[in-house]
């Protein structure tokens, strides 16, 4: 599965560690930015996570000109237009996104409007539409899962047409990703678990899908190892800042990996399930991962077997016959999901979610077939195949 030709691109500066937030003013002034706007949501603000960001800026004499804290979980074109209007009226010159995937995607879309002009974000939807660098943009993730801080995509809902608009451009990449464990210390257990499994899925699919390459492999395996080592420790000791930092770094690494090597059937099914049943993305990833790996097994036996080293460590890897390592990797992931279910009831099947009806499976399968992630799945998937995987994931 070695590609004869590949491209790898990640120009995002990563600033990570226990005092990473204090470097924000330095980064902004280096970009000639003096009037930043923060884009975030109510939950992040209520948890007090903006305080150290604002304090770091004020101590350096950098004033936060505006704080928009009303980003909804599923952001829309209306929200993007409103924020862009505030940015312009307050004469801001840069954006700091503080939050999870929705806040980061919203900030990316706002940056398109304030940089390119106009009020119609839909005009910039698609790939390669944006042709120029955008305004200075920093991202401070508050979950350790999406990897949005190092991806060149954003998705925004057009509420009038009830469709999700994708935006893809290397210009959407932030100037810097600020990874600070203080940002994830207050995450509740079920969100810690779901977002970590989101990152685990990014890394696993990056390592087993069609566009894998040696550089993305290095990031993917490092992410798998960090999550395998730290996730259950953090579940048992939520204030473990070292473990939190490991998970946050793993999320960023997995984001870099899948941005360059793509994802497959887990994401196709997850996107469709999220759209139809409104389940959180990380939960969908965790739920479908072992079932899809079983479906792909004979096409990915070698790389999946290799992952056992990073999932279970060298002792288990060397004690497991080479012919059984791929199955052992799936078992290790199932074991991790069982442990998470014990600790926070993270669902392992569609039935356990309580939000999916069995009659919806065909609709999910239909929608998944049109998902771009299908192109990179290592094994061809028919509609009947997708339905079969969903049935196995049902109960």
TrEMBL record:
Keywords: NAD, Oxidoreductase. The keyword Cytoplasm does not apply. The keyword Methyltransferase does not apply. Signal peptide: none annotated. Residues 192-394 form the Fe-containing alcohol dehydrogenase-like C-terminal domain. PANTHER family: ALCOHOL DEHYDROGENASE, ALCOHOL DEHYDROGENASE 4. This is Alcohol dehydrogenase, class IV. It comes from Marinobacter algicola DG893. The lineage of its organism: Bacteria, Pseudomonadati, Pseudomonadota, Gammaproteobacteria, Pseudomonadales.
